[in-house]
Design goal:
This protein has 14 helices and eleven strands. It is elongated. Strands 5-2-1-6-7-11-10 form a seven-stranded mixed sheet, with helices on both faces. It has a two-stranded antiparallel ribbon with strand order 3-4. A two-stranded parallel ribbon has the order 8-9. The longest helix is centred in the C-terminal third of the chain and has 19 residues. The chain has 340 residues and is an alpha/beta fold. Helices cover 44% and strands 12% of the residues. The chain starts with a helix and ends in a 7-residue tail after the last helix.
Length: 340
């Protein structure tokens, strides 16, 4: 990944978001598509905003005609042809049939043209095969569902395949791992164009899992489970801690503030938030640090102190472990111009 190229690309993307015109997203559907794969981009780029101004204008299109059958057995009607790609800023291929048929030539041609004019191409799960068919990934690194490693490597020997990351990003090309990783990837695209605040709020609405398990690395922050609907002594103290992330907090002090034993507090916290207090606190501090990094106004040492990590070295260690990039790389990628 070229950080300089990404920095220039993201700065341009942020400039586009200052306009009142939403970014156009073309979602490519096909006969036999999984309802889940079709729904994820719809939720992230449209439905998840729940009446709030949506920064995206989503269009679902198809190269196969208006009437499609999903793999779940119900039909959907698509009102647009793949001509919608011609004016899209972001084109999403949400998957592809497991038999991996060659994509239609008109679709490949339109993807190449879109890339040439600067659009972002996103291949979710087996949609990575479609992106690779364009030849645009030659000499690059890509990923897809782990079960299709051999097929991908054989079909695209000029592409370096990596089965570990949830997704792999280049300035105008993104490929993601299978199924649920599509959600991580789409949320990352929102962060890329809209920043962390919009993405965090969207993730709360979608009620995504607090942490991902398994061997794949997480590049984007994992949203925290929503607060309990009814206020409890734990949730009230947690709200206070959210305003005091730069201060020292321990399970013992938290339990005391809630008038509970350590064991009772630990049990109730995990039942309410889906993770331990330590995991929650670390994620909240990392999320806060991302906001400081993206504003680009403070040094890494100052960000570490303001986010409650105590020392810059501890902060860098946790940030690298969580996102596989350094704080400086994150700031360069997501809008901060100052290198300190």
């Amino acid at each position: 990944m070229c950080n300089t190229c990404l920095k220039d690309t993201y700065r341009s993307n942020r400039a586009n978001m200052t306009t009142t015109t939403p970014l156009k997203v073309a979602l490519v559907a096909f006969d036999g598509i999984s309802a889940f794969h079709l729904s994820v981009p719809c939720l992230v780029f449209q439905d998840g905003f729940l009446g709030q101004p949506c920064p995206f204008d989503l269009t679902i299109c198809s190269p196969e005609g208006p009437n499609l059958e999903t793999s779940s057995g119900f039909a959907v009607r698509i009102n647009r042809s793949i001509d919608a790609i011609d004016c899209a800023d972001i084109i999403v291929i949400p998957s592809w049939p497991n038999a991996l048929p060659p994509p239609p030539t008109p679709l490949i041609d339109k993807l190449k043209s879109a890339h040439q004019r600067g659009a972002l191409l996103v291949g979710l799960c087996l949609g990575a095969f479609v992106i690779a068919e364009t030849g645009l990934l030659d000499g690059q690194t890509a990923t897809t569902h782990w079960a299709f490693v051999e097929q991908f490597s054989q079909r695209f020997p000029k592409v370096t395949f990596d089965s570990q990351p949830l997704f792999i990003e280049h300035p105008q090309l993104i490929t993601s791992a299978g199924t649920a990783a599509s959600l991580d990837c789409c949320l990352h695209v929102v962060r890329r164009f809209c920043g962390s605040d919009v993405t965090s709020q969207l993730a709360r609405v979608l009620v995504t899992a607090p942490f991902r398990s398994g061997g794949q690395q997480q590049y984007i922050p994992s949203p925290i489970a929503p607060r309990p609907e009814q206020a409890t002594s734990v949730s009230k103290v947690v709200e206070q801690v959210e305003q005091e992330l730069n201060q020292s907090h321990s399970i013992e002090t938290m339990a005391k503030r809630c008038a509970m034993s350590r064991r009772t507090f630990t049990r109730q916290f995990k039942a309410s938030y889906g993770c331990t207090f330590g995991e929650w606190l670390l994620t909240q501090r990392l999320k806060l640090s991302q906001q400081y990094l993206e504003k680009g106004e403070r040094s890494i040492a100052q960000v570490a102190e303001l986010a409650g990590f105590g020392s810059e070295s501890v902060y860098r260690k946790h940030f690298k472990a969580a996102f596989d990039v350094s704080p400086s790389q994150w700031r360069a990628t997501f809008g901060g111009d100052k290198e300190r």
